Amino acid sequence: MTRAAGGARLIVNADDFGLSEAVNRAVIQAHENGIVTSTSIMAGGAAFEHAAVLAARCPMLDVGVHLTLTEQRPVADSVPSLVGTDGMFAPHATDLAKRCLRGRIALGDVHKELDAQIRRVRTYGLRPTHLDGHQHVHVLPGIARVVASLARAHGISAVRVPTERPRGYMLEDPRNIKRLAEQIALGLLGALSPLRHLRRVDRFVGFYFGGRLNEQNLRTLLERLPPSKTVELMCHPGLEDPGSPYGHWNYAWAAETAALTSPAIRELITAHGVRLIGYRDV
């Protein structure tokens, strides 16, 4: 029976828009032929301009800024505390967090870089509907305060707070205990950060299955959406890209795109009375 009156309001947000043309094309495919309603663009991504052009053709696709302080090169000039001798950001959020704890990250550099990223997105005619972070660096202590300040300065009212509640099925495979521990730690950071005072959704899901959101896993999430709540589902669509420099992520990009465009998933959403929305509706 359809639960139209009590169904969840669901934002399906595709991360890493601008990372590569293969990811960009998949995001648009999952929007036009699937359930993706929103995306987050990487201002410093190798395929940022390609993504910006595609986004301009999709007025119903919400576009946020995927604030980035790892793996890429900076957008701003001279942010020395954020880069290594190779001119690159830290290779992973854990490395960035360690540098933050040791006092080696200047928050002035963080402000300069993230402000430049937001401004670059605006320069291409896009009006960001929300902010989130690549590898969720935007919730790290100190950095979160900068992000909250920039959100207000740029009139961006919504932000992702990636606090995914542990569920029973997350304990079924002991190989994923590390992922669950990371999820709990990330949730605590989000719950304690100043970002919680900005506009956000009621629930966030998708971290536990991050990079491996196949149709079965997607069905698991959708069948457990809380009724009458606004939920963000984080996803990572992509196309097969054998030459990708991000192959070490081991993301099942193509399987995720297939799940997000599956007619069976669309039928499940309809059956559960779920309403697809964007961040502009939060």
What topology emerges from the helices and strands here?
Blueprint: E1 9-17, H1 21-32, E2 38-41, H2 48-56, E3 62-67, H3 93-101, H4 107-123, E4 130-133, H5 143-153, E5 158-159, H6 177-192, E6 203-205, H7 215-222, E7 230-235, H8 253-260, H9 263-271, E8 275-277
Parallel strand pairs: 1-2, 1-7, 1-8, 2-3, 3-4, 4-5, 6-7
Helix pairs in contact: 1-2, 1-8, 4-5
Question: What structural class is derived from the secondary structure elements?
Answer: alpha/beta
Low-confidence stretches are: 1-5
Please state roughly what percent of the residues sit in beta strands, choosing from under 5%, 5-15%, 15-25%, 25-35%, 35-45% or over 45%: 5-15%
Ends apart, CA distance between termini: 27 Å
What general form does the structure show? globular
Which architecture does the CATH hierarchy give at level 2?
Answer: Alpha-Beta Barrel
Radius of gyration: 18 Å
Mean pLDDT: 95
Number of helices: 9
